[in-house]
Amino acid sequence: MKKSTLNRLLIACCLLTLVSCAAKKHVLVARKADSAAKPLDNKKSSKLEAIRAKQVNFNTFAGKAKTKLSIGNNSNDVTLNIRIEHDKKIWVSITAILGVEAARALITPDSILLINRLQGVYLRKPFSYVYKFASPEVNYKTLESLLIGNAIPELLTENADFADTNGSTAISGNLHELLYKLLIGADFKVTQTNLSNESQGQSLQVVNNTFIQATNRVMPSQIDIASVVKDKKIQVNLHYTKADFDVQQEYPFSIPSGYEPGK
Hints:
By secondary structure, the protein is mostly beta strands. The protein has helices at residues 3-15, 42-53, 140-148, and strands spanning 26-28, 60-71, 74-85, 89-95, 101-107, 111-116, 121-126, 161-165, 168-175, 178-184, 190-197, 202-214, 217-229, 232-245, 260-261.
């Protein structure tokens, strides 16, 4: 695999969302909803309260996922080991064939660090580097939310339009130049997140499937992500085989001597 392709795959993998789980009993399946409505009323406030109450709360998360990464016509199967310390850091180890670690990443609200072990290079970037792959409205909390199947906090607002269909809810609106639509199941869990910025040629769709129980939390075991940034198309399909919450974790990260800065 070429160095530039590998770097793009690893960055996409680390930044476009990763997380949720499998390996315990299935309890729910994704649903869909549609369109829009308006007024600020008690019904809307009550629904928002119920949705917020169903968001996963945690201090730490650790998950393992079999993942297919695709950029254009280039596709690779890898395993992701993901650890999150809520509001502080996302740590990812990427292993390829035979369990050899290909890369390691550490994402914080301010920075992105990436070691490419296969090429002996590293990247050290501000968090704003993610805007090569996503809208400027995306922040660290956005990534955390998508990784565990939560709604993006800024999108749960009474200024949004609500529409009910067969017990499900569609929440839509705009955040500056970012158009969004959330599909919420009858159980108040997010089944789909759509973000788009037409002027920048950017779109992101995240679909949550096959909900499970993990350490007394309910979250998706399958997360399918499709991102388009102008002519760049990236797909990330995660299937989690292990997940734990609120277990003490370590987040080892250091740049080996002899590694060179990457691009």
